[in-house]
Amino acid sequence: MILVFGTVCLDRIRRIPALPGPGTYVEIESETTLLGGEAANTAAALTSWGADVRLCGNPLGEGPEADYLRALLEQRSLVVEAAGEPPPRFRTPVCDIYVTPDGDRTMFGLGFSAMEPVFDPKLLPLIRGEWFTAEPNMGGVSRQAARAALGAGMKVYLMDFIRDDDPVAPGSIWQSSTDWAGFRGDVVRNTEWVRRLVDRTGCFAILSDGPNGLVAGSPELEVRAYPPFPSPPIVDTTGAGDMFRAAMLYGLSQDWPIGRSLAFAAASGSLSVRSLGATSLIASIDEINDLVSSHPGIAQQYAEAV
């Protein structure tokens, strides 16, 4: 079982020709509303690949937006197990995402700052030896949940926990991107940054840098750079990190070697940029494996991760 804890929301994605300057106007070319949120994206991918998933996160609220969000979850055979009672005046979180032709995105959130429930760790289905993953968008609640999972003896995978006091424990897995940590486009500095994190925490660390590949390592595994798999034409980079995390967790839950899991995750992240949003077109296991096998030179570099 993989327990995915974190954000569940609506992603309202709008394609625009360019971001407008101050006081100017731009026409929205298209709009679509999708299931979103880091936890929901990750759980949707894992479920599509046949993994046993429990999704636990923020309240969904009431009203038309909440009803639509529940319908999108039902389409993915997902049910959100609430982590506690909703705070006062809670509303369904919605993320407005503006995507330009180069695939870059600008995001505006509504309802996220008030999404922390009155947390009750007894509501979490914590099972010793199973996987737990979280991102920090629910602030203190996310950190409490991660500490509860560690205390229960779960295997912990944390994404974007970048504070020095975050619960990154020896033997856990940490993932983030150069949107949040490290240095975009600088492999040497990113390698050193990851090495310092590994030395400080004892975790297995993964720092992705989009089209520049990633750096990964642990106390047992050499900290080194890995190349990216070629991506299709970029439509939208929303959720690429969530697809990477889901694929990494899938491989780990199947007891794959770490290099195979890393390659599968990197290929999954590359394929995720071919469509709007994270969940409109989730790559199949066969598609991901085909991308890996069609680039044996790159795959070999991942296979050398020992």
From TrEMBL:
Gene Ontology MF annotations: kinase activity
Protein name: PfkB
PROSITE patterns: PFKB_KINASES_2
Pfam families: PfkB (PF00294)
Organism: Fimbriimonas ginsengisoli Gsoil 348
Alphabetized UniProt keyword annotations: Kinase, Transferase
Highest taxon above the source species: Bacteria
Stretches assigned to the Carbohydrate kinase PfkB domain: 2-107, 205-280
